[in-house]
UniProtKB/TrEMBL annotation, chains A, B:
Leader sequence segment: 1-23
Domain of life: Bacteria
Positions that bind Na(+): F211
The protein's name in its UniProt record: TRAP transporter substrate-binding protein
Tagged with keyword Plastid: no
This protein's record includes keyword Metal-binding: yes
GO cellular component: tripartite ATP-independent periplasmic transporter complex
Lineage, opening ranks: Bacteria, Pseudomonadati, Pseudomonadota, Gammaproteobacteria, Pseudomonadales
CDD domains referenced in this protein's UniProt entry, alphabetically: PBP2_TRAP_ketoacid_lactate_like
Amino acid sequence: MKLLKALTGVAGAIALTTGSAFADDLRWKMPVAFATNLPGLGSPAAWVADNLTTASNGSIQVRVYEPGKLVPPFDILQSVSDGKVSAGYTWIGYDQGKVPAVPLFAAVPFGMKPWAYIGWYYYGGGHELLQETYHNKGFKVHAQLCGIIGPETAGWYANKIESLDDYKGMKIRFAGLGGKVLEKLGASVTMMPGGELYQALEKGTIDATEFSMPAIDQILGFDQVVKYNLFPGWHQQFTAQYMLINQDEWDGASDSQKALVEASCTAATTLGLAEGEYKNGAVLAGFQENGIHADQIPTDVLKKLKAVTQEVLEEEAAKDADFKRAYESQQEFLKTYKVWDERAYLPADL
Amino acid sequence: MKLLKALTGVAGAIALTTGSAFADDLRWKMPVAFATNLPGLGSPAAWVADNLTTASNGSIQVRVYEPGKLVPPFDILQSVSDGKVSAGYTWIGYDQGKVPAVPLFAAVPFGMKPWAYIGWYYYGGGHELLQETYHNKGFKVHAQLCGIIGPETAGWYANKIESLDDYKGMKIRFAGLGGKVLEKLGASVTMMPGGELYQALEKGTIDATEFSMPAIDQILGFDQVVKYNLFPGWHQQFTAQYMLINQDEWDGASDSQKALVEASCTAATTLGLAEGEYKNGAVLAGFQENGIHADQIPTDVLKKLKAVTQEVLEEEAAKDADFKRAYESQQEFLKTYKVWDERAYLPADL
């Protein structure tokens, strides 16, 4: 033991002398799309970075850059693929313009619950399909599921939603495939990062916005501007975040380093879901005490939104082969999942 | 770099010469309560052992012993606490006779869904309460949540359950607090490990049994003996498994090794839930095609089971301070969780 410590000491001294880490060490810059103080959505990135340093005894060090400090939130994929940064942490649905299939791995309207999604992702070939999806569009990244949260809310509005007509002409921030659904209904849909939404809502640049779940929306302060927080979040029953790693960096990592990244990200998926489920109830109860209406969108409106969603999904599948493949794989899984889901869980009326 | 590799080579040669691992390395024997071929329930233990070896570059090696090969399934806690083995992997509810509060961390009748449980465990103080619970009863273990699955079924029966009277005189294998509920209803409740159940059911030693979820029960073959697989599993809406580690072993581990065990176990929690949710639907659909009745227990029977459960939980809380503390902590969380749960998820009738 003494000899080993002495040897390690020598090696450590060499590293200090050259002023650089060992060639086998990983030093990654990781811009993130979400502030790390946002529960479940941003917090997993910070946890993963810390955990990688501790668990690897410093052999892996990931430096997190808060949104916009190094790379704008919507430029993360391109920057990682180009090797400008080694890694990034984001909601990959933001890139649906460049990679049409990514929303199926990020949030599907009227889609899977989070635990069904992780089932499909880890055991139904989802992880492998996602790698192929990026490579087929020329992006040089390895994508690792690295956080998931439960449903978003349907968003923040000045008034209730009582019919599909209410969306007509509404200036709304809405992400992913859900945004395409609202566009079909005549809404003027814009995209902007979370950090810009409060001001846009306050100034009237937008009339309404969805962003995330209560524990997050409270931090962004939407309840201070509008009073209707509508449910359920039909457009995002799960929201998945990924760590994107430049493909050359990933290929150059050792088996041990890869295992560490994979295990840390998979752990972050548990922690993200847990944090949201733990915190949302109390925040939502607090909203209600302060006069926020936590109303349900009427069932007939939801049914119509579902029908329009179906059209959007089929249009996207017709346009892009990767979308079609992932969509059909998910639908195939859901056929039998339904048999389980309908029986396994306790009815709500007990 | 060349010098470092040379140094590592020397160190490796020393290890070979002495024939032992370095003092800082961990070499753990880990008996498990569930065969590692059981999806979600047994598989996480094997995954964690493999992952720890890879991620630590061999510094941690956990050797898994299948059920009964080293330690009988129900003796795992005691063996780990006594230091006869360094670690064990089990459903901790088996020890409710010695540690009355453990079922609250393992499976609560009419209790939390898996994602609510992990919320409470990781963010609501559950992890810390569990350590105190063991220490208060004199057990020297560190407990790490290391796998969770969704609902069990209500079990396997020769006939439907149509009233509470059907449980009277029934010889049934039923675990945890659910077993106490059925005892109150006049059932003759026995406990035995999963590996012994098929034979007991076939020979008529028991009339009925619960064990786990369809993807697991199929492997154990209950569908070959009786034809009613009833739902929902009111007694175990979540089933949590833990890695128990001898306290001295845990205290002696480095920060890096602790972080590796924690991250691997937390990742195994994601993977366990995912594996079950992915596999159960197809297995259950297969059962139905082969004439197994996947029937619901009538709502009025479930309501009565819930009322008796309430009595059992209150009796246990009155008898044991740790039970009371954990029970009240869970109930407090559920008050606000309900506000979220009722609104966030899509209604089933869309």
